[in-house]
Amino acid sequence: MPELPQVWVLQPRVRGYRVPVWDRVAQRAAGRYSLSVLGPLAELRESGYTIGPHFREFPFHERQWLGRTWSTWPDAAEAVRRERPAVVVFCATLTILTCWTLPKLCRQLGIRTIAWTKVHSRSVQRSRWTDAIKRRFHGRFDLAVCYGRQSLEELASIGYPRERIRIAQNTLDTDRAFQDRAAIDRRAAELRQAAGIGDAPVLVSIGRMVPRKRPFDLLAAWPRLRELDARLRLVLVGDGPLLDEVRRRAHALDPARILVTGRVPPGDDEAWLAAATAVVLPGALGLAINQAMALGRPTIVADERGADSEILEHDVTGWRYPRGDIPLLVETIRGVLRGPENCARVTRAAIEVMRDRVNLKNMVASLDAAISEALAMSEPR
Known about the structure:
By secondary structure, the protein is α/β, with parallel strands linked by helices.
């Protein structure tokens, strides 16, 4: 029996929320190709995840230079020469230097390459100069798999051939929101009780305590927010370099009604979202949007571009406000708290999007289709 073609996925680090993605891709691949996900696995081991045979420990190095973090998979070129995979999928980020150099070697060896990419950067304003850099960077890959429609449009606008772009809408495993909702709600009730919240309305924000997540915006809004309802509470979930300062300011502002949890055990982030009367994400939007929408929680986000947030349409599947605009943030929250009928309409639509369109099944199918397409290419481009 002929050996199956090898498909590698290079990851800077393998996150727990990605484990179900690669587990399901490996299942779909059975009999057609052999999947290997290469990257540091320490986070999975520390969190107790089951690490399947398709995960492979692979070093990833980072260093600071000129105020930025630059990184490599230092063993990648040697491993590619030695093992000759048929396809390599890159987590395609401009600051990962291997993504600039390894595609050329792959092309010389007849190995297909896929850029798995958001395209945009939160930290760099788009310009002709940045577009030119991205065009040179992404042009190294045979195919591109984008996180969403906005990523596709940006990639096409800088000159990457539209016919070589595919979408695998970025998400995490939200199936639990539909299959294990009773268990999530029980844990949510326990968290409320332990925090002394009871049945009071509560705003929940989840994210790393870093500047781009803008945790201080909610604290700045709190003097006006607490006037909306004498029982209203605020819960900030997450850790990071700003955690101590967030805690200090929260304690000085309103220690009785603001809770800063720090890092929570796996699953409790989801339970805190389920416990929310409304979820507020003031910056650097990520996959907490998907969780909140799947759980049917009214979700309010800063109006930022990007594939992770495009699933939230204003007053259709959630609410947007101009990032950093504290008065409009307060007014948006006021409208959500005092408009239960409109909230019900919007959250129903959000649940439908997450159940029927933006789900792990569709993401995995799209990734598998792109890999299969790359395997079917017969001649180097």
